[in-house]
Amino acid sequence: MVSPPHEAMHRIFQHDPGLFSRVSRFLGVDIPAPVNATALPTDLTESNPVERRVDTLLRLETADQGSFILAVEAQGKKHPDKPASWAYYTAYLWTKYRLPTALLVVCQDHATARWAQQPVSCGPPQLPTLTVQPLVAGPHNMPVITDPEDARADLVLASLAAITHAAEPDVDVIPKALSTALRDAPEDVAKPLIEFTAQGLAKRPAKNLWRNLVAVDLSFYKSYLAEEVRDEVRKEVRAEVRDEVRAEVRDEVRDEVRAEVRDEALTRGEARRAAADVLAVLAERGLLVSEAVRERIDGCDDPETLSRWLRRAVTASTAEDVVSGA
């Protein structure tokens, strides 16, 4: 049961919202007087559960300092709502487990890393009641591992280094060192790291390098990553073969068409000469050749027909008799 003093101590601020400003100077801060105040519902219970999930949550035990909770968040870009979510996560976990709670944010670019590691307070500037300042791992502080021996000493760190430097121009040296180090690793150790690295590199250019390294240096590995490389090679080979076949067929068709065109040209030339012979005989005999007959003779492309007309031209009484009945 809520006691009257409890009610009085907070309801008085509802009665006079400006009271907080006047009291603040005794608290060592200076809060300006409000120009407007609105009473909000005090019931913060949510009628519908809101799903809130942290990316990874671990309870870690230590010998000297006991247990603590670690929440890990992957952050691909700046997001104005994230600090509030992180504050909720840490406060909730602290309340639920009653253990120190840490937050680690992993980034792949410098801008997001700088943004994520800035402290954000939920209160006004003078009253940072709850401040969120996560630890941030990113290209600004993760090592660039170039030596396979260094990668072999900590394969998981090398994988994380490749992931966090995915967008960096010098990233290629890390996958090369890691793939070399993984050659000697047991298959059950290498497989998950190969997957993590592939997923972390995502669509970055280094993903293609990693896939090629996996296919060449880690031939034992038969996951989707290696199969993906093989599928791409198959597609490339199929395309090359198709192009070769098309070229061969094109050459064959070109030869056939060239022969057809040559034959057509020879036939047309023979027809032109035969038509000229028919007209020459008619002219020699002094027969009148109308325009219609001339066009029919000139327009005929059939050497056999023209040969028949040539024989008729020798004895026909008129030019029309030459072409009559075809």
Description:
The protein has 326 residues and is α/β, with parallel strands linked by helices. 56% of the residues lie in helices and 9% in strands. The chain has helices at 4-15, 19-24, 82-97, 110-116, 148-153, 155-164, 173-182, 187-201, 205-217, 224-285, 291-298, 303-315, 319-323, and strands spanning 56-62, 66-74, 101-106, 120-121, 131-132, 135-137. The strands form 2 sheets. The protein has a 4-stranded mixed sheet, with helices on one face. Strands 4-5 form a two-stranded antiparallel sheet. Strand 2 (66-74), helix 3 (82-97) and strand 3 (101-106) form a beta-alpha-beta unit. Helix 6 runs parallel beside helix 8, helix 7 runs parallel beside helix 9 (205-217) and helix 8 packs antiparallel against helix 9 (205-217). The protein is elongated, with a radius of gyration of 45 Å. The model has no long low-confidence stretch (mean pLDDT 80).
